[in-house]
Amino acid sequence: MDERLLIDARARVLADLAARRQATATAVSALEDACVSRQWWAQQWPEGQVYVAGLVAQDVQDALFEEIGRWPLCTECTEGPEHSLYIQPDLGGPDPVWVCEETGTVAAGLGFLNRV
Predict the structure, then answer these.
(1) Cα–Cα distance between 20 and 17 in angstroms, integer?
(2) CA dihedral 103, 99, 37, 53 (to 10 degrees)
(3) Helix, coil or strand: residue 38
(4) Residues 6+ apart with CB under 8 A from 93
(5) Which residues, other chains included, contact 105 with Cβ-Cβ below 8 Å and sequence gap of 6+?
(6) Torsion sign, CA atoms 63, 87, 17, 42
(7) pLDDT exceeds 90 at position 21
(8) Which end of the chain is more exposed for a tag (fewer CB within 10 A), N or C?
(9) Angstrom distances, CA of residue 88 to CA of 26, 53, 65
(10) Quick check: helix, strand or coil at residue 105?
(11) pTM: predicted TM-score of the whole model, two decimal places
(12) How far apart are CA 74 and CA 48, in angstroms?
């Protein structure tokens, strides 16, 4: 596996965690676990390496749901219930973006969430 892809995935997800003030020990631990898991996954399916960044983001999102609830939250919608963003395309790549689960609007590319 190209280690640069994994390093890039880690950096992008960490940037989004920091942007939303969620770069806690729990979140960084979840990120590290996701990176280890996806490294193994990408070694088993080399053609899937382009999906690693989005899949790491989804793994962290799933892990944090148990600990803190929804992450990252949509900050664009001002009406309606609190809701989160999700990675599109579903498999996570090759160019993953965060999308509002209510409107389907692209909020940001992975690694480029706005600070709140």
Answers:
(1) 5
(2) 160
(3) helix
(4) 50, 51, 52, 53, 54, 55
(5) 76, 99
(6) positive
(7) yes
(8) C
(9) 24, 11, 18
(10) coil
(11) 0.94
(12) 28
DSSP label of 93: -
Query: Residue 53 corresponds to which tokens in the numbers above?
Result: 């960044």
pLDDT band at 17, cuts 50/70/90?
very high
**Are the C-beta atoms of residues 42 and 21 closer than 8 Å to each other?**
no
Q: Alpha-carbon distance 2 to 6, whole Å?
A: 7
Place of tokens 């996570």: 92
| Residue 90 token pair | 């579903």
Q: Residue 59 in contact with residue 34, Cβ under 8 Å? A: yes
Given the structure tokens 């973006």, which residue do they identify?
97
Q: What's at 14, amino acid-wise?
A: L
Q: For 109, phi and psi rounded to 5 degrees?
A: -70, 155
